[in-house]
Amino acid sequence: MSMVRLKARYLLCEIGVSEPASLQLLDERAVYTAVKAAVCRAHGDYGAALSSISFAVKYVNAHTGVVFLRCRKRYYRLIWSALAFITSLDSRGKKIPCFFNCLHVGGTIRTCQKFLIRYNTEQLHRMLPRCRNEAERLEVQKAVRSCSLKCTRREEEEEDEWDEDK
Amino acid sequence: MRQADQRQEPAAYERLVYKNASEYHYMKISLIFEKEGKRLEAAFFKQLIISALRDLYGEVGAAFPFDVLKFDEASLTAILRVYSSGLVKLWSALTLLGSYHNESCAVRVTQVSPFLLALSGNSRELVLN
Description:
The structure holds 2 protein chains of 2 kinds.
Chain A: E1 8-17, H1 28-51, E2 56-61, E3 66-72, H2 76-82, E4 88-91, E5 94-106, H3 109-127, H4 134-145, H5 153-157
Antiparallel strand pairs in A: 1-3, 1-5, 2-3, 4-5
Chain B: H1 3-6, E1 24-33, H2 42-62, E2 66-72, E3 77-83, H3 87-95, E4 99-100, E5 103-113
Antiparallel strand pairs in B: 1-3, 1-5, 2-3, 4-5
Helix pairs in contact in B: 2-3
């Protein structure tokens, strides 16, 4: 009896909007429907059915616009390619023009979080030379020093290797 | 008996094995409408197949190149050519084609072959004298 593990891929995406204020309206439902509609348009009935097998929006951050999407390992490319065709999100009746930028594809949420922390520290490092006064500089340095990954038991169990076999 | 006569060169030959002999596949299909006596132009026919591909496989699927080599307006039969990698997609889209502008229709696939010459003869219609 072999242990068959259902492997997933987590797509770490960043939503870019023209006005930062409209990011506050971001919610999981809007992202879910937008991604599903884009996959349906790009890959038809076949793609929509395959990609929605265990598709879920795992995490949405309204302040930074970071989104975690989860899907089956075999079909993540359908969603990945359809992300480029999303032009707007429909949230609570309002249409927000936006674009999806995929930063990382990982095997577990934990690896995606590790990447996100590295990415954010790099962004902060890039912001440091552009600080206009000393107070801002101190703020950025404090933020860089406090970047860390809080360990929780649930994430320990989801440990998986990112293997490139497809 | 001299040594030179006995020593023979090993026979050299080269064997080429093709997994797929042709990069194209050719399909002979016929379009059947519920209403008798319907005529269609070749451009509309191609548009019909593209819309079937778009329904099932989306914009990416509809963009896959295929050619209508021959189209007979009276009998509504056609010969299609498609790259071998897209044969399954095209065939499945033709199978699930249900309607054209609110008229029921169906596609019957008569022959599929990687070689165009094979479509010229059909053992079903063979007449032996």
